[in-house]
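FAQ: What does the model actually see?

It sees only this:
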Amino acid sequence: MKYVDYACAWTVFVIGVVGMTAIEIRHPPQAVLDTPLLWIFVAMFNLLRLRNGYSVRGLRVFCPASVGNGESVRPLR
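And it is asked to produce this:
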């Protein structure tokens, strides 16, 4: 199951990087970098959680809370 978590986290990270690169190369009208940046942000916290496990005090609550916080901002843009 841990391999699936890593695969999903890396997939989200790659989607963010590819999205940001596509926006920078093509310059579509009214495109902003906040969505790919949010995907990178979410992937980094998931990778941090997977790497450190739950040995870091507060990480178990912090990572899902940060992901939830990032996702709650997305509809407001």
